[in-house]
Amino acid sequence: MLDLFSPQKVVYNGGIANVKEWKISCYLEVMSGGVPTTNPNLELRDLFLPLLETCDKLFIEWYRQQKACNNNSVMKKMKVNGNDGELKVNRLMTFITRYTPNPGEQALLKHIDGAGKVDGSVVIALPMDKWSSTLEVNSFDGHGGGLTFWDGRGRQEIHYDTRVGDVCFIDRAVWHQADPITKGTRWALVIFYTIQ
Fold first, then answer.
1. Peptide bond connecting 36 to the previous residue in cis, omega within 30 degrees of 0
2. Count of CB atoms within 10 A of residue 128's CB?
3. What is the pLDDT of residues 72-118, one digit of tens each?
4. What PROSITE patterns does the annotation carry (predicted)?
5. Where are the domains of the chain?
6. In what order do the strands lie in the sheet with 157-160?
7. Alpha carbon 39 to its chain's center
């Protein structure tokens, strides 16, 4: 992964979380029309393909449980449309982000994934980089990181101290952030999904 990771500079209209130029992510899959970049890293995507396919299955199961608990009409509508409750997903965008303590690389502050165009997303805390330096240098344990979420009214803040291998499922239009780190390197795989 380290050899194939190559961050791509993306300029967002109006910025995302107050960042107009995002340059710490490497895009494996992009939206139709080449958004946000026209050059996805296909070698890195191929390396991650088994994990991506596993994430697809996990997302479908999570989505089905979410909607069955919260909105039974979604499940009924699926059966009416002839797919007998069978869900299919599309990975709208997939990328790997490397957070460091450097200015502009510490966090992705409060935002909603995909500007509301996604049905949900997955964030996986990837293993720490123990190959380019020692764990003492690259570990961010005790130095920030994790994810913070806000309820629909913005009154309650919920922090999750993520660890390597943790998988987080995020429903559509949920305000959240990748918390700043002050030491080390944090790697995350992010997938935006739409339901077909």
1. yes
2. 17
3. 555 554 544 445 567 899 999 999 999 999 988 999 888 888 876 89
4. FE2OG_OXY (PS51471)
5. 2-195
6. 108-111, 176-178, 147-150, 157-160
7. 19
